[in-house]
Structure formats: C-alpha cells, structure tokens
Amino acid sequence: MFSSYQGPYKLNDIVDKVLPGYEYDITFHDILITGVDSIENANKNEVTYLSNKSYLNDPLSINAAACFVTDDLQHLLPTDTKPIITNFPESIIADVINLFYKDINLTQTNNISNLAYLDEDVYLEESVTINPSAVIKKGVSIGKNTLIDSNTVIGSNVSVGRNVSIGSNCSIKNCIIGDNVIIHPGVCIGQDGFGYVKNNKTYLKKFPHIGKVIVQNDTEIGANSSIDRGSINDTIIGQGTKIDNQVQIAHNVIIGESCAIAGQVGISGSVKIGNNVMIGGKAGIKQHTIIGDNVIIAAGAAVNRSFPSNKKIAGNPAQEIDLYHHELSICYLKK
User: Which of 332, 241, 330, 320 is nearest to 278 (CA)?
Assistant: First the structure.
C-alpha cells in the first residue's frame, strides 16, 4: 500500500468535518463509510461525488452509499444513495480523500537520518524529518513539520517554511520557501538563469545573477520543473499557485496568486503574470511579456506579446480566442 488508511468513519462524522453546519437526516449516524471511489466504482459502503453529467455513463451503475453532488444533478442518483448537496463536489471529495488516506512517503517520523549531512549553523524547528543522503548546507533554516527527502541538496542560507514537503533529488538554493509548500522530486530552484550579453566581440558574456527565488505559501511545484533565480530582481511564485511537471520558469519572472500552469510550459525571462491565470500544456511565453489577471492561455499557444486581464488566448502566434476561431474557420472554408 502506498497510503496509510485512516478509516472507517460514520457518514455524519465525514459531513461534519468537510461541510460544517450541513443539515442531514438522522440516518447518517447509522451509515459506516469505508472509503472513497469514483461514481461508477463506489460500492454501498463508499462515498463518491458527481459534479458533471458527462462523468456518468450509466446512472444505473451507481451503488455508492452517499454522493457529494450539485443540486442540478441529484435527480440522477438512485433512492438508496444519500445526496449531499454542495456547489463544489470535487473540492469536498478532495477533503474526504485526505481524511481517509495519508501518503506514507509524507508521514513525519521526527527523525534526522544519520546518513544525512547537516552543515554548521543549521536551524531546525521541531518535527523536521531529513532522510538519508540529503545535504543541508550552512545557515539553512527549516520550519516545523517539514520533510526533506533523500538526495536533496539545500543550499546555504535557504529558508524553508513550515509544513513543507520537498521530494527526493531536488536542488534548492538562493531561495525563500513559504509555508504549506509541496515540491515534487527532481525540482531545481535557484540556479542561474540563461542570461548572456555580447561585448564588442562575438563572445557571450555571462550576466551575473544576484537575485533569489521567493516561493510563497500554499504553492505546489511539479516533478522536474525548474525555477531560475533573478538576475538583479527576484523571481516570485505567488501564493496558491500550482505548477505541473517539467515546467521552465526563467529569471525575474513574477507569477501572481492562484495560477495553474500545466506541464512543459516555458516562461521566458522577466515575464509578469497576474492572478488566477491558467496556462495550458506546452505553451510558451516570450520574455518581458505582461499577462493580466484571469487570463486563460490555451495549450500550445505561442505568446509573443502582452495581453490585458480577462482574455482567452490561443494559437501561434497567440491571439484572442474569438479571432483565433474565426481565422480557423476561414482556413477550413478555403479547403
């Protein structure tokens, strides 16, 4: 097993924890829930969720004991499945899953391995776990309930917040990491960016990097992603932003709060991205571009200019979605 099972729970206890104040009937006290599963696979002892009709191929296949469901979809449930009405079933079921299952790889052991290396002047709060072959260099501070996994190197004077999980084989330097951050295996943070200047010859001269990376609270950084330190200014990842695997973020980039960045996105140097921006996989953003708040960038888009807030953009070169669709329709008509 890859997770530590925490159940079972009575249905009323689950609802009290994930939907405080929700009014349910007295029968919830008699229903024992042993786990969580998808809408089509959940059995009579499990709880599930339904937020989109397209997720359900056959209503007759529903056997769950209870279902977190939006009000407009509750009519699809059989009479023996208890509906629990919420506007956000997916968010609630995430809380339920966390209630039942704990990742055994993230379980705190309050242990500093004898096979880890800690340099002088390292400050550790309580309940820090450092696994074998991790290297913690001089002047590092690590907050409580933080896990540093094997073969990860934390560079000198890095500050790591509380309730942080840093996976194996990471390189973390020249940065400040906030609280409640998840960093998956293979991530590199704080290395020099790809910055060179030309002199009067053809020789490319390396531009010095003296900035740092600031990773704010509640962020998540996917496996094998890379975030470069700033050259003069800092590279900043805003609070609550989620970054997928294999994403490249160059020097001096500033990303706002609550952004979602899918896999293999490349963000060039000195780009500024607002809050609540969503970027699809394999999109690329040109250096010194400014992206406003609430922008949605389609997968594969090549963003070579700035866009204001509340736009949907797509294509190569990227343009507003209505114009992109219009040009596509013209191309099809010509064919």
Answer: 241
The whole model's pTM is what? 0.85
Of the candidates 41, 34, 43, 46, the residue with the CA atom closest to the CA atom of residue 9 = 34
Give SS3 for 90. Answer: helix
**Residue with the two structure tokens 């010509």:** 334
Q: Which residue has the tokens 């070579």?
A: 304
Q: How many residues does the chain have?
A: 335
Q: Which of 221, 264, 262 is nearest to 240 (CA)?
A: 221
Provide the pairing of β-strand 101-103 with 3-5: antiparallel
DSSP for 291-317? Answer: E-TT-EE-TT-EE-S-B-TT-EEETTT
**Domain parsing of the chain, residue ranges:** 3-105, 174-324
Q: Is 184 a catalytic residue?
A: no
Helix axes 89-100, 11-18, angle to 10 degrees: 120
Residue identified by tokens 């925490």 is 6
* Closest among 156, 154, 207 to 183, alpha carbons compared: 154
Ordered per-residue pLDDT tens for the chain, 335 residues = 677 889 899 999 999 999 999 999 999 999 999 999 999 899 999 999 999 888 777 767 789 999 999 999 999 999 999 999 999 999 999 999 999 988 766 555 558 899 999 998 999 999 999 999 999 999 999 999 999 999 999 999 999 999 999 999 999 999 999 999 999 999 999 999 998 888 777 678 888 899 999 999 999 999 999 999 999 999 999 999 999 999 999 999 999 999 999 999 999 999 999 999 999 999 999 999 999 999 999 999 999 999 999 999 999 999 988 777 667 666 666 65
Considering the candidates 184, 209, 251, 288, report the single residue annotated as catalytic: 251
- The superfamily CATH assigns to domain 174-324 is Hexapeptide repeat proteins (2.160.10.10)
Pick the CATH number of 3-105 from 1.10.10.60, 3.90.79.10, 3.30.720.10, 3.40.1390.10: 3.40.1390.10
